[in-house]
Write a structure and sequence with these properties.
The chain has nine helices and no strands. It is an all-alpha fold. Helix 1 (2-21) runs antiparallel to helix 8 (146-172), helix 2 packs antiparallel against helix 3 (56-78) and helix 6 runs parallel beside helix 9 (179-205).
Length: 213
């Protein structure tokens, strides 16, 4: 149940982002750097898509995540109106500097020293910090419209639901221990904590979402 709900949260996030693509003139506040990191996360995580079959649902979700993430990056880079409205001047987080540390960490800490397992660990470490460029951009510009706020919230909810899934499986499945996944997921959720607080405050008070500078 948690597995299904968390994937639906991520799919709703992609759907909200797709709605924004229909209004390309209001693309300020969206970080291309975060979208590039997520594309790299899914590309490194789903290398086994053609070699390891789990289920039809699993394969379809992998294809959706890969297709959506790379389509968003392409659209933001090459669509004329989107490129014009994209706030490149404020989206200056040096995101590739966090890729190498994540890769080194994956080479040092992994469950099994194989290419697929190392890249899986790399995807977990990178996903934990992939939202940083987006959060930094929102704090710099304080330009948070409803669609952007909902999109970031659903990305955070996707990971928070993973934690509930892990808790449930820990108590229902024998020997279910995955420290790498747990720690990286917890770090990722904590990065969203500040955003969650201001998101719920704005929803509670029915005011525009604003993050402190």
């Amino acid at each position: 149940m948690f597995y299904l709900v968390q994937h639906m949260a991520n799919c709703f996030g992609f759907q909200i982002f797709s709605r924004r693509l229909l209004i390309p003139c209001v693309f300020a506040g969206v970080s291309l750097k975060t979208q590039e990191l997520y594309a790299l996360v899914f590309a490194s995580r789903y290398l086994d898509i053609f070699t390891s079959y789990v289920s039809f649902y699993n394969t379809v979700m992998k294809l959706i995540f890969l297709g959506s993430s790379f389509s968003i990056v392409w659209y933001m880079r090459h669509h004329k109106l989107v490129r014009r409205s994209y706030d490149k001047d404020h989206d200056t987080f040096r995101h590739f500097f966090i890729v190498l540390p994540c890769l080194i960490l994956a080479l040092l800490i992994h469950e099994k020293f194989t290419f697929i397992e190392v890249m899986w660990a790399f995807s977990l470490y990178l996903e934990a910090v992939a939202i940083l460029p987006q959060l930094v951009l929102l704090q710099r510009t304080r330009n948070i419209d409803n669609l952007t706020g909902q999109y970031v919230f659903l990305l955070g909810a996707y990971r928070a639901l993973y934690i509930l899934n892990w808790v449930y499986r820990y108590f229902t499945e024998p020997h279910y221990v995955h420290w790498i996944t747990w720690i990286s997921g917890l770090i990722q959720t904590l990065l969203y904590a500040d955003f969650f607080y201001y998101y719920f405050q704005s929803w509670k008070n029915n005011v525009k979402l604003e993050l402190p500078a």
